[in-house]
Amino acid sequence: MTDDRHQPTGDDDLPEARSVRSRWPGLVWAIPLAALIIVAFLGVRALTRQGVEVKVTFGNAEGVTPGNTKVLVSGVEAGEVSKVRVSPDGHHVEVTLKLDPREKAALNSNTKFWLIGENPSITDIQSIRAAVAGVIIAMAPGTGGAPQRTFTGLDQPPIVPPDAKGTTYFITSKTGSIQPGASVSYHGLAIGKVVDNGLLGFDHFRMRMFINAPYDRLIKPGAEFWSGSPLKLSLSGASISAGLSSPAAVLQGSVQFELPHDARAGPQVPEGATFTLYDDEQTAEQGPTGPEIAYRMLLNGEAGDLAPNASVSMLGYAVGRVRGAKLRFAPGGKPYTEATIALYPRKLDIDLPDTAPHDDWRTATDRTVSRLLAQGYRVHLVQSPPLVGAHVVQLSADRGATPASLGHDGGLYPLLPVAEGGGGADDLVASANQILQKINRIPIEQIGDNLGKISANIAQISGSGQVRDSIAHLDGTLRQLDAILTEVKPQIGPLMTKLNQTADELHGTAAAARTVLSGEGAMQDRSLPDAIQQIDEMSRSIRSLTDYLGRHPEALIRGKAKEKK
């Protein structure tokens, strides 16, 4: 028997092998592939989170340390310092910052960096806090500039943030007492800052101030600016109150702003306009001064404390200032003081264009001053407050002064005539001497002797025996008169009653007689009306007597007093 399973078959009956390809590499590759994906994810995340690298160059970076010094944007942390090294020039410090990637769009040529806490200031609380906790780098994002990664840090923090909204103006002053950072205030509200202060020429400073929006709309034609005083005194009724400004105002000064009522309807002044900074509010209210016109004066009295910038006043208004005073000697050796003052033309009602030449201002001012001198005005050196204060110059009229004119002795400026005596303490001393001389001419000793004699005479008269007898006799007479009046007074009442009854009866009789006479057919006697009239007069006389005795009972004794003519 044959086994068919081992018999060969034809080609069509043989199995065919096939090759199968799979996209999955197999389980053996799953772990490496997962690790590759994780590494790629971490790398991408690291790249996106590593931040933006920025280099900032500072003149000094004391206190800046990598990893500790933070970068703040509007008070929020936006990065940190990664590296600090000396710049290639050897005079600066190069600081590398790593910033949040979200700050990339704010990095341009207008972006600013500065240090906070490097130079602490009492006027900047944030700098004091940073000096204690550590130096901070502040960043102010810029807008509109070209993209940039390398910057130069500011030496000082900006007074006005780069992105602040407002308007820039200028103010000019004769002094530079207002420091950058000083506040510009309107009725106690800070509306801006003084950005910088520069010298333009002799006694001519120019300050740039930034007024924050929307307060910049208050800056209109006629706006008044003056230097704020750190000490404020107020007189109210019978009390005096004092107040001290903030430490910042004391150290940096302050600018006060006011807009008169008649100027509040005007438009806003364009950016870049220039205003005048006055010394105080009263001077600001008086308006512009015009260019200073100088004059000289010669003083014979004590004037060593006549300080520069002391006021020159007329009728209580400031019309100028003192430029200076020097001790001089006349050819004979007599000392005197030569002082120079500057008058304000516009305060003397001189109206010329601001662009007028200085010679025109000089001519107009000389003409006005000459008119004042013709009216008797003179220069006086007075003390303010009197007796204890420093000397100031005053232009006032002297009684009986003859017309005068400006002097021209070849000096640099015209010469103003000074009141006789020189004014000031010398005049007070002279007046006091005159009073003392008048007092000395009073015969005080003779008056005292006369008073002593009068007192002795009075004492002699009061001690005389005749005087004592006369007083005793007068006292007795008064006692007798009082007794008589006591006896007569009770009898006056009944007497006056009887007199009144008699007057009534006479009046009734007269009335009855008139009735009889008025009857028809009655016999008329021409003598009766006269008799009735006499009865009436008698009745009135009795009543007058009664009234007089009622007022003057003593008339029964002394008789009726004579009437005064």
TrEMBL record:
Keywords: Cell inner membrane, Cell membrane, Membrane, Transmembrane, Transmembrane helix. It comes from the Bacteria. InterPro entries: Mce/MlaD, PqiA-PqiB_transport. Residues 51-113 form the Mce/MlaD domain. It is found in: Cell inner membrane. The chain crosses the membrane at residues 27-47. PANTHER family: INTERMEMBRANE TRANSPORT PROTEIN PQIB-RELATED, INTERMEMBRANE TRANSPORT PROTEIN YEBT. This is MlaD family protein.
